[in-house]
Amino acid sequence: MPKHHKQSSSHSSEPTDHLYTSLGIDKTIILVGLMGVGKTTVGRRLARKLGLNFVDSDEEIEIAADMSVADIFDTFGEEYFRSGERRVITRLLENGPQIVATGGGAFINTETRAIIKQAGLSVWLDADLDVLVERTGRRNTRPLLKQGDPAQILAKLAKERAPIYAEADIKIKSSVVPHDHVVDSIITALETYNDCN
């Protein structure tokens, strides 16, 4: 089970040169969770705070395929996409410590999850359904939400995926607070995680 952490604001929003080193963690930090939870936005800020490189796995997939995620889904199907996603995440995990934001279904795939567990440190960003609906409604580029009512789809995905996301090393609530607060909560959780492992 992941460790649960409340929001914290004990860390300065200024970058700290040796903060990542002081955490004593030498793995890539992988952000997992449903679409709209804020993995990319939080990931960029976390990377900047820790002085690490940030990578969005969906963006890397699009570069490798020279197609958008939506077009890959439409043209080749989800199974093909998940295979490419697994290869990209495997490659990213071989590139040394960094922050990686994954697509909502990445950690759900058994093989991809095993790779992340072996070589990375997973952080589950969780949010309430109303937050997810509001955030995902800002963009019309999410393939799974084009199959029906977005709120119903997100509710179904949340119910199905929560037990799997719960296998992540750390759980953080990404609610309606400034993203820097979420970043601070992750850093606090990383400190606690390292102390306990």
Distance between the termini: 14 Å
Superfamily (CATH H level) name: P-loop containing nucleotide triphosphate hydrolases
CATH architecture: 3-Layer(aba) Sandwich
The DSSP helix count reads 9
CATH topology value = Rossmann fold
Strand content: 5-15%
Q: Low-confidence parts, pLDDT < 50 over ≥5 residues?
A: 1-15
Count of distinct structural domains: 1
- The total beta strand count reads 6
Radius of gyration: 16 Å
Sequence of strands across the biggest β-sheet: 1-6-5-2-4-3
The major beta sheet can be summarized as: 6 strands, parallel
Structure, explained:
- Helix content is 52%, strand content 13%.
- With 197 residues, the protein is an alpha/beta fold.
- The protein has a single domain, classed as P-loop containing nucleotide triphosphate hydrolases (Rossmann fold), CATH 3.40.50.300.
- The two termini are 14 Å apart.
- The model is unreliable at 1-15 (pLDDT under 50).
